[in-house]
Automatic annotation (TrEMBL):
InterPro entries: HK97-gp10_tail (IPR010064). It holds the Pfam family HK97-gp10_like. It comes from the Bacteria. It comes from Collinsella ureilytica. This is HK97 gp10 family phage protein.
Length: 159
């Protein structure tokens, strides 16, 4: 950011106003560009941590630009189960994780068999699984982006 000086004259104050408005516009552009770059970092890290069988999960991770920045999305229909897990002790202790699994029809420790695991709807009935642990591939992407925020934003504001 450049230093701005002003004297107490109408022309000097008008020039300062023009410079501040220009700077505000550049901050808005830089913010969006920083969000897009950070989404790219998150996408790359999430793809690197997605379980690889066919590569379908990793290739379904994409950056979607928005009016104000970008979102990172995973469109594989089973993505939530890989992210949060379906087994004993998973999802994590985070309430949001448990809520996401519950919205998908999973119920923790509801087997009625005296064993821990997940009951899930299938073919008009219910199945029981001890499941798998969550991979947290999207969470790892978000964490990597958080680490880079200061550098990315600084770089965009300086350019």
């Amino acid at each position: 950011m450049k230093n701005m000086q002003v004297s107490l004259s109408s022309s000097s104050l008008s020039e300062l106003e023009r410079e501040l408005l220009h700077y505000a516009d550049s901050v808005e552009r830089a913010s969006k560009q920083a969000a897009i770059k950070l989404a790219g970092i998150a996408q790359e890290e999430a793809r690197a941590n997605a379980k690889v069988d066919t590569g379908a999960l990793a290739s379904s991770i994409a950056v979607k630009e928005t009016q104000t920045g970008a979102d990172v999305v995973c469109s594989a229909p089973y993505a939530a189960f890989v992210e949060f897990g379906t087994g004993i002790g998973t999802p994590s202790t985070e309430r949001a994780d448990a809520r996401a699994m519950a919205e998908a029809g999973y119920v923790v420790n509801a087997s009625g068999r005296g064993s821990e695991g997940w009951v899930y709807p299938k073919d008009g009935g219910f199945r029981f699984t001890h499941g798998q642990s969550g991979a947290g591939f999207m969470a790892k992407g978000a964490e990597e982006a958080r680490v880079e925020v200061i550098e990315v934003v600084r770089g965009e504001l300086q350019s």
